[in-house]
Amino acid sequence: MKQPTEISRRHFLRGTGAALAGMTAPLPAVFAADKKDWLLKPLETDPESGAELYQLTNDERPTDDIYGEQPYASREGNRIAVEHASSDKLSGGISILDLTDGSLFPVVTNKPRFPAFHAWGEYLYYQEMVDDKLMLKRCHYARLVKEDVVELPTTEGRLSYGTVSPDHRYYAVSAHPESGGSKVIVLDLKTGERRTLVQKPEYYFKHEQFSMDGKNRVLIQANKMPDVKQVHLGALEVDHEGIQWFPADRPHTPRPTGHESWVGPADRILFSTASDKDGRGNVWMAGLKDSSPTLVSQTPVRFCHVSVSRDGRFWIGDAMSAADVPIHIGSVKNGKHRRLVFSRTKHDRKQSSHTHPYLTANNRWLIFNSTRSGRAQVYGARLKEGFLDSL
User: Fold this and answer.
1) Euclidean distance between CA atoms 132 and 385, whole angstroms
2) Across the strands, what pairs with 151?
């Protein structure tokens, strides 16, 4: 095992050790109307689920909810993060949106890097270049104050977006050297140590996600190179090098789609796969000690983008090949699922046109993307009381 690498004292003091000194004033809102129009009247109400559909953003830039597998949203369920692509007149950026009054708070006002995974957290974590330094920063969802966390290493190769543990102790990130291959490193944000968790030249590592069970395991997607005919899913431990594999891909399941998520506070994952011709479903659940995965739901509906509620009771999936791309919510316990809403998105090969659905921490809103207005924007479906109980 490679020995931990010490982050220089200068680097670390720029981060967590100097966070209070690096704080900014609270972010100003772009608007703070008493009630935004989208809060007053829904676009439509689903006739089966009773969910009320609202358009949450109306930006001249394509805007999306970033990703659903580890939601960029507050732990209270009242605020979410959204990402703006650049337009002819405006640069891209990242903002925090308040679901109670429609206020929008810009966090990054230039072309953003993909933020770090930190599901339903106290902070939004993200990378940003400051002069010639790559910094990990964070913005408090409630107080709207930004601060530096740590200067990131640039000698490991191109860094992915990474993931921050629920206790804010660790930052794990995939690194891709120009020479090929990839590895996953972890930075201890308390001690300043850096170590390699896994390094395999035959794999391209991505989609790192910290678990929410208190064990700080890292879920990692491992694409087998060079043709990515195999997509393996594994788990890493922050205190030593090595990878444990979940029973995913052949011979256990068809090839995973690359959409996977921890099942709330449990030590299991949920993932979607390609479909066998005679398959009974394509959403699976597996643990590291399982010899084979469990089919979550026996259904002819084929799901692609999946996520799991914070409490681990419900799974969410979009049926990309179905008309108007419906989004379903299902029970993790019994597999039963129902359509909540039609997204009515049309895929244009851009990630912002994919729904990337997720539930807010309080299970009151389904957040997703759609191009139904002609340009990708963020939408919310407010769940009708009793809908989740029906599952």
Assistant:
1) 51
2) 135
Predicted confidence pLDDT, tens digits, the chain (391 residues):
434 444 433 343 344 444 434 566 677 666 443 446 666 689 999 999 999 999 999 999 999 999 999 999 999 999 999 999 998 888 999 999 999 988 999 999 988 889 999 999 999 999 999 999 999 999 999 999 999 999 999 999 999 999 999 999 999 999 998 888 899 999 999 999 999 999 999 999 999 999 999 999 999 999 999 999 999 999 999 999 999 999 999 999 999 999 999 999 999 999 999 987 777 899 999 999 999 999 998 899 999 999 999 999 999 999 999 999 999 999 999 999 999 999 999 988 889 999 999 999 999 999 999 999 999 999 999 999 999 999 9
Residue with tokens 């490679």: 2
CA nearest neighbour of 269 among 304, 220, 229, 228: 220
- Cβ atoms within 10 Å, residue 57: 23
Number of CB atoms found within 10 A of residue 69's CB: 23
Choose among 374, 368, 356, 387: nearest CA to 54. Answer: 368
Q: Which domain CATH number covers 335?
A: 2.130.10.10
pTM for this predicted structure? 0.91
In the chain, the number of structural domains is: 1
Q: Which domain holds residue 356?
A: 5-390
- What distance, in Å, lies between the first and last C-alpha atoms of the chain? 47
Instruction: Give the closest residue to 57 by CA, choosing from 76, 77, 31.
Output: 31
DSSP output for 93-131: EEEEEETTT--EEEEE-SSPPPPPB-TTBSEEEEEEEET
Per-residue DSSP letter, 87: -
**C-beta of residue 365 within 8 angstroms of C-beta of residue 77:** yes
Say if CB 16 and CB 149 are below 8 A apart.
yes
